[in-house]
């Protein structure tokens, strides 16, 4: 099973980036192998639709869960319709959030955050 974290940097020691659509990177973590890959977020620099671009990128990677914080309505609906669960994280190292996910300690996001309309 693969999970994705919106990350501020290129390794698990970096903190979670709270902005889903505008995070610079995604960490794709495979829970079966404990291996991870870093992906640049294609939506980060778009003028609008950053969340949708980010969500589609993670759908294409076949992730089953996302750990982030602020997920706008369009990205939320796209992830939800693809049966991807979303979990709320804080600005702490991603490696801690992976452990918290494994232990079932993260809160599932049940509704979208506000739309930023291309804003940061």
From TrEMBL:
InterPro entries: Di-Nase_FeMo-co_biosynth, DiNase_FeMo-co_biosyn_sf, MTH1175_dom. Transmembrane segments: none annotated. Coiled coil: none annotated. Residues 13-101 form the Dinitrogenase iron-molybdenum cofactor biosynthesis domain. Pfam families: Nitro_FeMo-Co. This is Dinitrogenase iron-molybdenum cofactor biosynthesis protein.
